[in-house]
Design a protein that fits this description.
Order of helices and strands of chain B: EEEEEEEEEEE
Strand content of chain A: over 45%
Oligomer: heterodimer
Distance between the termini of chain B: 36 Å
Largest interface: A-B, 21 and 23 residues
Helix content of chain A: under 10%
Number of strands of chain A: 11
Radius of gyration of chain B: 13 Å
Helix content of chain B: under 10%
Shape of chain B: globular
């Protein structure tokens, strides 16, 4: 059973702070890693993807991957109230036809 | 370009009734997926398809059936609705060579 675990929430940070979201996965064969943002009552929206060890930056978002530790994280710098949402970590294996295994999500609240 | 569309948006079913959730994409994507999301949880894969005429089970297929007669449509059938099928159902699609899955707006189903 492939599992993806996210740090328990909810997570509350003040506006302008760094929000740190963490995720671990059980399948060592996993090749692709994604962070989705989901606003309440809406569908998931892809914000970051990462495939190799190290950091990947896109604007205020940085994804970090460590395959040896089976760990992936998302950092949100200069957090804004509009970042308040549920963040879902998702993992795909190399030969899984793109099937995603999702974590349970972490609720982030950014307060002014 | 509508992307991924789902109908209906919301439905109430009685136990034992059946229904079909519709999903259509206009991006000529060959991969399509059905997920369910229970309250406060991540998404779980029900069924997926790698092209017209080809479908396979995901993590939680019991109580559901699918068909893929065209590239555009991927309906999900519930034959005998049960309260455990109360959930939000998301359809997603992607193209070969691209990892990004595009999600529809979801169908909220309540089985009473």
């Amino acid at each position: 059973q492939k599992e993806v675990e996210q740090n328990s929430g909810p997570l509350s940070v003040p506006e302008g702070a760094i929000a740190s979201l963490n995720c671990t996965y059980s399948d060592r064969g996993s090749q692709s890693f994604f962070w989705y943002r989901q606003y309440s009552g809406k569908s998931p929206e892809l914000i970051m993807s990462i495939y190799s060890n190290g950091d990947k930056e896109d604007g205020r978002f940085t994804a970090q991957l460590n395959k040896a530790s089976q760990y992936v994280s998302l950092l949100i710098r200069d957090s804004q109230p509009s970042d308040s949402a549920t963040y879902l970590c998702a993992v795909a294996g190399g030969t899984s036809y793109g099937k995603l295994t999702f974590g349970q999500g972490t609720i982030l609240t950014v307060h002014p | 370009n509508a992307g991924v569309t789902q109908t209906p948006k919301f439905r109430i079913l009685k136990i034992g009734q059946s229904m079909t959730l519709q999903c259509t994409q206009d991006m000529n994507h060959n991969y399509m997926y059905w997920y369910r999301q229970d309250p406060g949880m991540g998404l779980k894969l029900i069924y997926y398809s790698v092209g017209a005429g080809i479908t396979d089970k995901g993590e939680v297929p019991n109580g559901y059936n699918v068909s893929r007669s065209t590239t555009e449509d991927f309906p999900l059938r519930l034959e005998l609705a049960a309260p455990s099928q109360t959930s939000v159902y998301f359809c997603a699609s992607r193209t070969s060579g691209q990892e990004t899955q595009y999600f529809g707006p979801g169908t909220r189903l309540l089985v009473l």
